Amino acid sequence: MKTIRKFATPLTMGAFLLSAVTGVLMFFHLDTGLNKAAHEWLSWAMVVGVALHIGVNYRAFTLYLKRPLAVGIVGVFAALLAVSFLPLGGTGGSPMAAIMQGLGQAPVERVIALTGEDTGAGLARLDAIGIAAEPGQTIAALAGGDRAQQAAILSAILSGQ
Fold it and tell me: Entry's InterPro entries (predicted)?
């Protein structure tokens, strides 16, 4: 039990730090690199740390749950968890995702036209980054279903560079 106690709290603290920082970055759409993957996968360390922490502090944990305030706070979060499984009304989803999907389904010349640039110049810019596009092809078809590639194509068209 003493060995577990040595690891439980530091593991929980470290995992909380990672999960909190990456979660806040993701909330504000500032995550880069491996932030999302670290948040999703390394949060399992927090689950393990909390489970170990509860295990070695079980008596104190059960004493907390005899207090009305503690029960109320845990109850509120349990209710929020239950509500989080309910489907949202309306169309749902991110407006950015809808925009990206719409642009992906549009022919390349229409997306180029959004910039006010000549179609030939836009196609030449795509050619310069290794994308051989022809009028009539959709952005999604050019990207071959790769979202990162689609974003790169849209960035090249819309940035004017």
Answer: DUF4405
Q: How far apart are CA 129 and CA 131, in angstroms?
A: 6
| The one-letter amino acid at 152 | A
With the C-alpha atoms ordered 116, 157, 141, 31, is the resulting torsion angle positive or negative? negative
Where are the chain's structural domains?
2-83, 95-159
How many CB atoms are located within 10 Å of the residue 153 CB? 23
Residue 126, Cβ neighbours under 10 Å: how many?
A: 19
Q: How confident is the model at residue 133 (pLDDT cuts 50, 70, 90)?
A: confident
Confidence of residue 77 (pLDDT cuts 50, 70, 90): very high
Tens digits of residue pLDDT in 97-118: 788 888 888 888 888 888 888 8
Distance CA 63, CA 84 (A): 28
Residue environment code for 14-36, b if the CB has 16+ CB neighbours within 10 A, otherwise e: ebeebbeebeeeeeeeebeeebe
Cα distance between residue 64 and residue 112, in whole Å: 62
Packing angle, helices 95-105 and 147-159, rounded to 10: 80
